[in-house]
Amino acid sequence: STRKDKVEAALKEWNVAQHKIHERPKKYLDSGEEIPQAKLPLPYQIKIVQSAVAFLFGKPVKLVQLSKGTDKAFKIIDDLWTEMRMASKNRKNARTLFSQTASAKLFVEYKDKDADGEGAFNTVKCILFSQDNGNDLYYKKDQYGVMQSIARGYNSKIGDQATEHFDAEFNDVIISCRKTDGFWSVKSENNLAKKIRYSYYEQEDTEWAIVQALIERQEMLISKRADNNDYTADSILVLTGEVESLPGKDETGKVVRLTGENASAQYLSPSMAIDMVKDERTTLDNYIL
Fold it and tell me: Does the global pTM surpass 0.90?
């Protein structure tokens, strides 16, 4: 199974550049000229996720020793937890899960500069995988919900040469598949951990799913109001009769010269124009902050 389609839909709602407001139908004048329209996306999704992450991991998770006589083992695990920077990884993983509905951590053996011996590993690292960092996640569970396998599809690139990969991990075996020149090569090796090294996370919907329709409505309303202000909030100078001259925009003591018995000049503006612009500016300030 995979949540690829659902994750792609979630990422479109998460990315303000892909919000539906950008798909507003175009409008044209009788002359065929396109009428400019405001398309104002609101990053509510980001705010909602940031708040959820802060509630969950505002204070880092602390490990608690419940067993007795395990001080030495517990200190090793606690030190490793700090070394892997799990506090920041938990926050990042939560942001991914809440915004994409699926994510995974992979715990792998690692050899740093203090390792002894050729090919020896002396620590563990945690890697985060998600669709937005180039990894399509797949999983298989039995009828009781127990994880049987986790796999990920991804691409690597050396120079201009791209290679497609698909790696699957089981309790007893790790299968690595690589596509070269249109053909798949498959390599199998024993899983020395005897355990799937991934932690897989999923939730049914994004954190903002329950209010997505309201967000889209709000984006449409403020975009239409911006259009309305663009069209009507600025006063329009109405001239009747023959115009001899109009002042330039940088002139002081501006004068409009009209000729003719019934010549006149007046401004056309809605009675609420000032309030309309003020209200929009206040609303936008609130959104920005």
Answer: no
